[in-house]
Structure formats: C-alpha cells, structure tokens
Recover the amino acids of this structure.
C-alpha cells in the first residue's frame, strides 16, 4: 500500500464524498410528507413510499456493500473457486424474496409494523419471542456495520492517508445526515453509489485483462499461483468442497433478508408488487458481483502482493490505473460503505425503539417520541461501530459477523413460518430459536469461528454450513415442543 498521499486520487475522492454529503443532507426534503422526520415511519422507512426504481437501488445498495467489493475478491484471491459461493447465494436469494417478502410486507403494512420483531409480536403476541428476534437483529447488525468501516478504512489507507481521523470524520458526517434525513439519505445516495460501482467494475473487467494479456493469461496466472499454494485452493472446487459450498450458499440466502437493514428496504417499499419487480431485476447485481470476484484472479496476473488479502482490490487499481480513476474507484467503494452502514444503523434503531424502548421503557411513547429515540440510537450505533473498529482487531469484527450470520438465520422460522401456516406457537418457536443459537454458537466456537463444521458419520466426513445445521436443529426442536405442548398461536 502507498506510504505517501496520492493527491490526485485524494482530490477525486473528496469531490465525490462531498457530493454525497450534500445529497445526504438534502435528502430530508426529498419525497417528504407533512410529518417529515417526526414520525418513525417517515424517518425509519421513508414513509413507506419507495417505488420500484428507488427500492432497486436501496436494496441493492445495502445488500452489496463496500465490504462485499473488498472481501469477495480477497476471498477469491485467497482460496480460489470456493470464494465464488456468493454467486449462487445471490441467485438463490431472489426466489426467496419473491415468495416470502410480499407476504411479510403485507403483514407489516396492514398493522403499521416497522420491524420484523413487530410482525412476530403481532402474530404471536409473545413479548419474549419478540425480544429474542429483536435482540438477534441488533447483535447481528453491529459487527456488520463495523465491517463497512473496514472497507472504508482499506481505501482511505490506499490513498496514502494515515491515522484514524479521516475514518472518524467520514463516519461523523454519515451520522449527522442520517440523523437529519433518515432512510431517505441512503436511498438517494444509493443512486450515485451504484452508478459509480458499475462504472468501476465494467471498466476494470475490460481494461485490466487487456493490460495483462487477456483472460487466458489471467486464469493461467491464477491457476499457477493456486497450484503452488496447494491444499484446497484452485480454479475449480474440490469434491470435498461441494457440500460446504452448497450449504453455505443456501444458508446465506435464507439469512440475507432476515437482517434488519435488508428488511428495512423491503418495508419501505410502496407495494408488494414493487418487491416482486425487484426480485426479478435485482439479479443484475449478481452479474456485477461475479465480475467483482474476478478481480481476485486478476491480482495474480498483475503480480500483486499484499500484506492483507483485503488490500487486493485497492492495490490492483493503484498498480494498473491512473490516479484519477483510482480516486474514483476508492470513492465508489467508500460510498458503498455509507449506504449500508446508514441503513443498518436505522434498522437497529428501529428495533431498539419499537421492540425494547416502547414495550419496556415507555409504552405510551408518541410517534414523534419514537422518531426522536430512533435518531439518537442511530447515532449511538454508529459510534459503537466506530469504537469497535478503532479499538478491537479487525478479525474480531469478522468473527462476530460470521457468528451474526449463524444467529440471524435462527430467526427465519419465527419471521417466516407464520406467514404461510399457523401451526407453530410462540413457545415452540422460542425454544427452537434458543437451541439454534446455542448449538450454532458452540459449533462455530469449536471450529475457531469458521462458517462450516465437519461431521463424521459412519466413518465418512461431511462438511456443512454451521448456520444451516443449527437451523435444522432449531426447526426439529420447535416441532417437538409444539407436538408436546400442543400450543396454538394466538389469533
């Protein structure tokens, strides 16, 4: 990474960062109603007024994050084909969105629910189950926000800046315009962010191979590098990797839209039809993701060597592109951190306000009071994420985010099952959630916080995604408790 400031790249970076800052503060007057931000639905869900076009950018913006742009090529650079699990995962997720999310939107819109935990309480009338779903959402979101800071930190260092002040300043600005404009700020900024990311990736996948001798040379260099590494790395999956690859993709797809930030984008849509249209057209982002992943292979052809795998993408751009384009690319990645970080903090603030503050602290809080609490909590969440990344090792944030995926998947039965059938009661679902959380955590810790676990059955070894195994156990326990207790969900 550079040890001195690249002033041209920094100038371009600052220009686009200032642009989105102006958009962020101006967003409070964009599509606003008479209530403005003095109502939680207005501040936290944009008035439930986002059509297909805005929702496409918003959901894509908070699903495909800065850390995605940094981490996916880094994983491909490190392990090869196994790093491409994100592609089938993002293909599988959209049929799930198409089938489930319109029903969830209807349930939320009909009763004025703002969070998934609201929907769960509305269906099962169980405060303990509501609390469990809300707590899981908040805890799983915090390290996810911190990882957006990791993505921003990587590109700031690639510009030659040192120290933590630039990162802190960027997040303070984010905190202020999110406080002022709520969900409208990241929704508006997402237009700029996605356009910039598409430009960067399309230019890279065309020009980088041209500079390196074509895709044949790219794959040849990567293949030679993986052969030298040995082990499980390579351009294709080894037979032992197929099951963990498939289960990781399926489990990740089921978990993706259980996170508060992705559900916030869903609840902000103006109709169920908007969600269906997005499920049809959002796979365009999967094409983009596949192209992003190829940057990991290109780094070998460019003879890039880095101290950390996360530095691969910035190092590649610094090596092969003029400074002005590197600055543009780094700005795109940094802005790609702002959009999801804002939505994540809003989703966590909505959960705290509706599912902790209102039921346990101030049941008579007004809509304006809810909005005020949510705004303050969104600031606290961002400060917490900033402290997290400044004072704790990055690996700790990554480990917690991997655990967060296992945990958030355990909310799937409580959030989804009641949309299709009413057989399960709250006690059964809460029991399944608790067992899934404990079992998934124990398996993950026993593997050194890795996403997959190996089981020996009849002398044969099988490796599968820990979160999916915990979910199966979750469902089995819920069925057993339901049969034994015979509890029916309350009408």
């Amino acid at each position: 990474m550079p040890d001195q400031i690249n002033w041209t790249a920094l100038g371009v970076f600052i220009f686009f960062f200032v642009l989105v800052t102006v958009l962020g503060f101006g967003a409070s007057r964009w599509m606003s109603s008479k209530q403005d931000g003095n109502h939680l639905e207005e501040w936290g869900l944009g008035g439930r007024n986002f059509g297909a076009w805005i929702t496409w950018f918003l959901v894509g913006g908070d699903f495909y994050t800065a850390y995605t742009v940094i981490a996916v090529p880094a994983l491909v650079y490190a392990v090869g084909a196994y790093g491409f699990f994100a592609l089938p995962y993002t293909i599988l997720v959209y049929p799930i969105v198409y089938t489930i999310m319109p029903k969830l939107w209807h349930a939320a819109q009909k009763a004025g629910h703002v969070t998934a935990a609201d929907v769960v309480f509305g269906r099962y009338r169980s405060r303990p189950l509501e609390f469990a779903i809300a707590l899981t959402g908040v805890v799983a979101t915090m390290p996810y926000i911190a990882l957006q800071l990791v993505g921003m930190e990587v590109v700031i260092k690639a510009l030659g800046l040192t120290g933590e002040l630039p990162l802190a300043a960027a997040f303070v600005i984010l905190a202020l315009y999110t406080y002022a404009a709520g969900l409208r700020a990241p929704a508006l900024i997402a237009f700029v962010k996605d356009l910039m990311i598409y430009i960067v990736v399309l230019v890279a996948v065309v020009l980088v191979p041209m500079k390196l001798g074509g895709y044949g040379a790219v794959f040849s260099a990567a293949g030679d590098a993986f052969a030298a590494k040995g082990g499980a790395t390579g351009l294709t999956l080894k037979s032992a990797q197929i099951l963990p690859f498939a289960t990781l993709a399926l489990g990740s797809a089921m978990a993706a839209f259980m996170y508060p930030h992705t559900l916030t984008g869903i609840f902000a849509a103006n109709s169920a039809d908007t969600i269906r249209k997005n499920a049809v057209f959002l796979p365009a982002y999967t094409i983009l993701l596949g192209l992003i992943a190829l940057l990991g292979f290109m780094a070998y052809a460019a003879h890039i060597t880095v101290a950390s795998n996360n530095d691969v993408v910035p190092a590649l751009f610094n090596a092969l592109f003029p400074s002005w384009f590197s600055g543009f690319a780094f700005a795109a990645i940094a802005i790609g951190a702002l959009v999801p970080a804002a939505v994540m903090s809003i989703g966590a603030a909505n959960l705290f306000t509706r599912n902790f503050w209102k039921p346990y602290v101030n049941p008579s809080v007004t809509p304006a009071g809810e909005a005020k609490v949510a705004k303050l909590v969104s600031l606290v969440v961002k400060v917490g994420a900033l402290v997290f990344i400044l004072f704790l090792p990055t690996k700790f944030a990554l480990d917690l985010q991997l655990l967060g995926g296992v945990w958030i998947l355990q909310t799937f039965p409580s959030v989804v099952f009641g949309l299709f059938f009413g057989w399960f009661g709250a006690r059964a679902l809460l029991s399944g959630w608790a067992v899934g959380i404990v079992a998934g955590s124990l398996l993950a810790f026993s593997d050194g916080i890795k996403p997959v676990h190996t089981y020996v059955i009849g002398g044969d070894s099988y490796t599968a995604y820990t979160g999916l195994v915990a979910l199966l156990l979750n469902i089995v326990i819920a069925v057993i408790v339901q049969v034994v207790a015979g509890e029916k969900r309350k009408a």
Remarks:
- Residues 108 and 117 are 10 Å apart (CA to CA).
